[in-house]
C-alpha cells in the first residue's frame, strides 16, 4: 500500500496533510493515535466510503474485509448460518456454472461456444479460489473457534449486539479477503475466542490492519505500527510492536525537543546581535547582514516544538463534602422478565472506592442506573444522603445530547464561550472541533466529552460504568491518575485490571451473588477474561 500526498479535511478541520507512506504487502500493522486522530476515517478511505481531497492510495486490486466497531446488519430475518454462508459466493457461482453448461449444450455457433467455454473456465477458477471442496470444513472450524454453534439457527434479529459482532467477525474471516481492516476487534470476544482469533491472524496470509486499544492483543499479532499524529496530521510507520513504537516515539520527541531548544538559543543570540548593532556601519553592518541571513534561514528550516497531544489539567473537585454514608442499599431486588439480583444490601462510607464485578448480563450497569435514579427497584430501598451530589459516567454516554454540538452539551455550566473553549482544549477539542455534532464523533471522542462534563460537576460521589472503554492507552493512564486523587466516594464497574489497580479499591461486590469481599486483582483478571461485553 502506498499513500501518495494524501490530503483530507472536513471544513476547516484538517485530518490528513500531505501524507506519504509506503507499507509492504502482507504486513500486519497496528493503527494507533489518540481518539479523533483519524483512524476510522482512514479505514473509510481504504473501503472507498470516503474520497480524499487530493492525493491517492495505491492498492493492488485486492479484496478488502472490514470489521467496524458498530455492527449494522440489514438482513435481520436471516439465520446466522445462512448469513455466514454468504461470505463466499459459492452457491451463486455453482448456479452460474450450471447455466453456462446448459447454454453450451444448446449453442450451435462455434464462436459463441468458445466464449461460453472461456466463461466456464473462468467460473471454475473462481470456485477453486473460494475453496469449493474445503469451504464447508473451513467454515465449521471458524464456527467452532468463535463458539457460534448455539447461534446457528437463530436469526440475526435474535442476537445481541455482542453476538452480532462475533458473527460478523466470523463471516469476514470466512470471506478470505486479501486485506483485513479490524476496528477494535476484541470488544466482544471472550477469552477463548480471543485466543482463537489471535492464532488465526498470526497465520493469516494477507495484510492485516488493526485499530485496537488492547495492547496485548496488538503485540501478539502486529509487526509494524502506523502512527497517526493528530498534532501534525501526518502518519509514520514504525517497525516492531507497540512497546517498541512507544520507545522510538519517545526518543524522537526528546531529540526533536533538544534540537528545538538548541535552535531557540541560537535564534536569541542572532536576534540580540542584530538588535545591538543594527545601526552600526562598516564591518559591523556587514556582520549584521550576515546574522540576518542566518536568522532568516533558521526561521525557514526551523524545528517544530513538540507539543504533547494529551489531556491535561483535568481535576475532580467537590463542591462540598458528602454525608458520612452517601449510599445505603437495603434488600434491593430487580429484574426484567427474570430477576437480576435479589435482596441485595451494602453501605458505602464517605471516601471509599468500591468496585462492582461480574460477568456481563448479570446487572452491573442496571444496578448503577438504580442508584442514580434512572430505574426503580422492584423491592427494597436505595437511600442517598441529603448531601450526596452524584456524578454519573454512563458506559454508552446516555447523558450526551447527540443532536447538539459539543459547546451546546455544556450549556448547564456557568461558563462563557471563551472559558468553555479554553476548557475543552484540555480535552483535545480545538478550533472548529467544538461545533461538531456529538453524533458524528468517535466513541473515544464522546468519552472525552463525558469526562469533561464529569469534571465540571463538582460531585462528591462518582458512579462510573466502564470509564476506560474506547480510550487510548495514554488517556487511560491519565484518567486513572485523576480518579486516584479524587477525595470523594466512588462506585465503579470496570474489568480493566491496570485501571482498577490505580484507584485504591477497598472492597468489591460480585453480582449476581451479592458477595462482598476485599479487593483482589486476580478476581478482576478472572472477570476480564469472562467478560464478553454483551450489549
Give me the side-by-side strand order of the main sheet.
5-6-7-3-8-9
Query: Which blocks of ≥5 consecutive residues have pLDDT under 50?
Result: none
Output the CATH class name of the largest domain: Alpha Beta
CATH superfamily of the largest domain: P-loop containing nucleotide triphosphate hydrolases
General form: flat
Count of DSSP H/I helices: 16
Question: How would a crystallographer describe the biggest sheet?
Answer: 6 strands, mixed
Q: Provide the number of structural domains.
A: 4
Average pLDDT score: 87
Total strands: 18
CATH fold name of the largest domain = Rossmann fold
Oligomer: single chain
Rounded to an integer in angstroms, the radius of gyration calculated over CA atoms is 29 Å
As a percent range, the share of helical residues equals 25-40%
What is the CATH architecture descriptor of the largest domain? Answer: 3-Layer(aba) Sandwich
Structural class: alpha/beta
Q: How far from one another are the termini?
A: 35 Å
Estimate the strand proportion: 15-25%
